[in-house]
Design goal:
Shape: globular
Organism: Streptomyces milbemycinicus
CATH superfamily of the largest domain: Glycosidases
CATH class of the largest domain: Alpha Beta
Number of helices: 9
GO molecular function, one term: beta-glucuronidase activity
Low-confidence stretches: none
Protein name: Beta-glucuronidase
EC number: 3.2.1.31
Mean pLDDT: 94
Family: Belongs to the glycosyl hydrolase 2 family.
Strand content: 25-35%
């Protein structure tokens, strides 16, 4: 799916701003059939939960409604008009003057509708978008809805971050010619100093296609005719971590020598490979340093914000991070565009978090249910999971920053039924993109002895919290446990290992001379113990701390105003551990520290 861009043949209108807003039950049963009768307004993009002071809105389960008037540019006569919603968490319905034009399930990937037949250039239309935040056992991520005796509906879920909902990303209206470019796929390789570019251009109707490659200065470095083929860039400058270099693949639909549609797809020439226990980018071993992150800021919730985007990348650069994981859902595409331009490496993850009912039992004390069964995570769940993978790869396949797909976080990979659930999903991922490695992030309960799916994947991503949830406050024991655990995975599978989560909750300003959990000193000492262990194990090729910044979670006595494992506070102030990381990471330049470093 192509990201909307203005070109010589396309125009783009951003529909962000303040929209009318209403909660289901406060307006009529068909609110899309007329103007919303509501005093409320909500910002787009933003999650709606923290915008209002009414807890009934924050805790609402079900549909909410957004509405605004949109004027179509009068010069669009003869073009197709496309409406795009970058994300509606977790289900969206779009109405144009009362007509349903699009419906989508999945809260973190975009969807579109051709509304040409419903609008007229130069005139206004009423745009209504319904958003539903409900999660069930057949959604990704999963959840469960209960109804109390007084009729209140409550959403429970198994992911440890707040279930923010609404229109958290932009809404667009854009034009395309009747015959237009519908999709572009770019796959790159390196042949000595020459870059190879396999491309495929899909058009709305059969038409001649011309393709040109431009370097950053706008000079043409390769050209070809045809909707698919291979281009060669002599003396290519590869895209490298920390040294981004982007080309544009300019696709043009031709008619009697005239260009009727044009679209420029940025790309970088680079290769990714797993060889033995090494992760290679452009044939060179790469060591991941960075974070698990979240799209989470005060007031906005999961609403995308360009100011936080820039500042977060500045803080990662300051700390010496070269990578991050999009835990636990696809991030806004603007984030990946920024990573492309600045040479930051990304592990791109689906929203498949919470596929683990053992965690539910541990948190609630309820009897543990089997994760994989007809009544829990089942074939319908897997179908939704497969669609999430399709949409993730369709959106992000051309980003050079994306070097690996992560198809689940902390699934119950040690339970019966895990292999039957995941093997078809892994096959689908490799069919859709055979060029990138695939991983999942393993939960504490899954060990090298009992995990049922690790052999299927290319890289072992391990989440561990020795010294926090296990051996709390005892870092000597934690370090011993960690080393034994990692050596077990290394000996059995011989694959690259990334420590994809490790961390300790920390209150900024809390200090102690002892190893006291929650203090800034303990967080720094905890991370140092893990780093000593990584440096002793050859198969470890990366370290992603949990988390970049504190973030909001659901209500629960095990959390105090959210998860505090960030090395930065929620408003991005550094804790002591941030400076310790800076001392370790800066200067590594993607190389693994030597033993004892």
């Amino acid at each position: 799916m192509l990201k909307p861009r203005p070109t010589a043949t396309r125009e783009l209108v951003n529909l962000d701003g303040v929209w009318k807003f209403a909660v289901e039950g406060t307006v009529g049963e068909t609110p899309w059939t007329g103007p919303l009768d509501t005093p409320l307004e909500a910002a787009v993009p933003a999650s709606y939960n923290d915008l209002f002071t009414d807890s009934a809105i924050r805790d609402h389960v079900g549909w909410v409604w957004y509405q605004r008037q949109v004027r179509v540019p009068r010069g669009w006569e003869g073009d197709r008009a496309i409406l795009r919603v970058d994300a509606a968490t977790h289900r969206g319905r779009v109405y144009v003057d009362g007509a349903l034009v699009a419906e989508h399930i999945g809260g973190y990937t975009p969807f579109e509708a051709d509304i040409t037949d419903h609008i007229r250039p130069g005139q206004e239309f009423r745009l209504t978008i319904g958003v539903n935040n409900e999660l069930t056992n057949t959604t990704i991520p999963p959840g469960r809805i209960t109804v109390s005796q007084d009729g209140r509906r409550t959403q429970t879920y198994l992911h440890d971050f707040y279930n923010y909902a609404g229109l958290a990303r932009s809404v667009w209206l854009y034009s395309v010619p009747a015959v237009h470019i519908a999709d572009i796929t770019v796959v790159t390789g390196l042949d000595g100093t020459t870059g190879t570019v396999d491309y495929e251009v899909t058009t709305s109707m059969t038409a001649p296609v011309r393709v040109r490659v431009l370097d950053p200065s706008g000079d043409e470095v390769a050209v070809s005719d045809g909707a698919s083929g291979t281009l060669r860039i002599e003396d290519v400058t590869p895209w490298r971590p920390g040294a981004a270099h982007l080309y544009d693949l300019v696709a043009e639909v031709m008619d009697a020598g005239d260009v009727v549609d044009t679209y420029a797809q940025p790309f970088g020439v680079r290769t990714v490979e797993v060889r033995g226990a090494q992760f290679l980018i452009n044939g060179e071993p790469f060591y991941f340093t960075g974070f698990g992150k979240h799209e989470d800021t005060p007031v906005r919730g999961k609403g995308h914000d360009d100011a936080y985007l820039v500042h977060d990348f500045q803080l990662m650069e300051w700390a010496g991070a070269n990578s991050f994981r999009t835990s636990h859902y696809p991030y806004a595409e603007e984030v990946l565009d920024f990573a492309d331009r600045h040479g930051i490496v990304v592990i791109d993850e689906t929203a498949a978090v919470g596929l683990n009912l053992a965690v539910e039992g541990g948190l609630t004390g309820a009897p543990v249910r089997p994760t994989f069964s007809p009544d829990t995570i089942n074939d319908d769940t897997r179908a939704a999971h497969a669609q999430a993978i399709r949409e993730l790869i369709a959106r992000d396949k051309n980003h050079p920053s994306v070097v690996m797909w992560c198809i689940a976080n902390e699934p119950s990979s040690n339970e019966e039924g895990a292999r039957e659930y995941f093997e078809p999903l892994l096959e689908l991922t490799r069919k859709l993109d055979p060029t990138r490695p695939v991983c999942y992030a393993a939960v504490m309960f899954a060990t090298s002895d009992n995990d049922r799916i690790a052999d299927l994947f290319d890289v072992l991503c391990i989440n561990r919290y020795y010294g926090w949830y296990i051996a709390t406050g005892d870092l000597a024991t934690a370090e011993r446990y960690l080393e034994g655990d990692l050596r077990g995975w290394a000996a059995k599978f011989g694959k690259p290992i990334i420590m994809s989560e490790y961390g300790a909750d920390t209150l900024q300003g809390l200090h102690s001379v002892w190893d006291q959990p929650w203090t800034e000193e303990y967080q720094a000492a905890y991370l140092a113990a893990y780093h000593r262990t990584f440096d002793r194990i050859e198969e470890v090729v990366g370290e992603h701390i949990w988390n970049f910044a504190d973030f909001q979670t659901s209500n629960g006595i095990h959390r105090v105003d959210g998860n505090r494992k960030g090395v930065f506070t929620r408003d991005r102030r550094p804790k002591a551990a941030a400076r310790a990381l800076r001392a370790r990471w800066r200067g590594l330049d993607g190389r693994k520290p030597s033993s004892g470093a």
